Amino acid sequence: MAMEKPASISADDVRTAKAEVLSQIAPIKIEDVLIGQYGPSADGKEGGYTDDATVPNGSITPTYAAMVLFINNDRWKGVPIIMKAGKAMDEAKVEVRIQFKDVPDSLHDRISRNEFVARVGPTEAIYLKMMNKRPGLVSEPVISELDLSYRRRYSQAKIPEAYEALILEVLNGDQSHFIREDELDIAWQIFTPLLHELERKEVKPRTYEFGTRGPEGADDFLQKYGYKRRQQEYHWPEDLGKPAEQVAKEYQDKEQ
Q1: According to its record, what are the GO cellular component terms (predicted)?
Q2: pLDDT tens digits, residue range 2-50?
Q3: DSSP 3-state of 131
């Protein structure tokens, strides 16, 4: 998402552009990192990380991390790049979320920010979460979305699984989506010093319940860098991500 346009779509040019943007990432400071480790679920049905028989008692191995990176180039200078990943979370998904800044002097209170989201999984989608007026004789602002859900929009197309696509690229000799040696080296150069510092200082991860969004205080931590979690309730519509024919049939069944 952050790389500059490659010189061409050839594998070497694409991977060179990826390696270049990685090389411009500043060293990660430990104060820009929050780590966590999952504990038992609230209902007690799921154990915590250290309840596993193969995990040593008192282990401080993180199972969650939120960190802020900065890219030292003209396009992204000063823009916080937030990375979050974790195990035993409330949902499994992979996505990139670009959050736009607040409108100065907004006429409404508690307005959530507009966001552009590129979702890799579990259902591929590109959508823009945006504030708009609720239809009708009210002036209440609500969160809506301009949505491109792949399995709905391209219901007639065969969308391969990730490894199916990679195997086909191997057979075709296309290396565009495979990591080159220099990219791998640069990636480890970004994170290895941080990992060593966490181990050396024996930083203790914050505990979070199995099946939740992560450690308490994670939202406050990210807010320091300008990120704001939505201020209004929002639910991803169940219809999005379903093929159009399936949605139409479900509506017909309800009407009948």
Answers
A1: cytosol
A2: 999 999 999 999 999 999 999 999 999 999 999 999 999 999 999 999 9
A3: strand
| CATH superfamily entry for domain 11-255 | Dihydrodipicolinate Reductase; domain 2 (3.30.360.10)
Q: Is 52 exposed, middle or buried (0-12, 13-18, 19+ CB in 10 A)?
A: exposed
Please report, rounded to a whole number, the percentage of residues in the chain having pLDDT higher than 90: 62
- pLDDT given at position 243: 57
Distance CA 176, CA 11 (A): 4
The angle formed by the CA atoms of residues 206, 55 and 212, to the nearest 5 degrees, is 40
Instruction: Please state, as a whole number, how many other Cβ atoms lie within 10 Å of the Cβ of residue 8.
Output: 10
Task: Show Cβ contacts of residue 152 under 8 Å, excluding neighbours closer than 6 positions.
Answer: 239, 240, 241, 242, 243, 244, 247
Q: CA-CA distance, 189 to 215, in Å (whole number)?
A: 27
Matching residue, tokens 């209004």? 232
Q: What is the model's pLDDT at position 253? A: 66
User: Tens of pLDDT along 53-77?
Assistant: 999 989 999 999 999 999 999 999 9
Please, are residues 35 and 87 in contact by the beta-carbon 8 Å criterion?
no
C-alpha angle 66-68-73 in degrees, rounded to nearest 5: 150
Mean pLDDT of all residues belonging to the chain: 88
- Helix axes 11-23 and 181-200, enclosed angle (nearest 10): 30
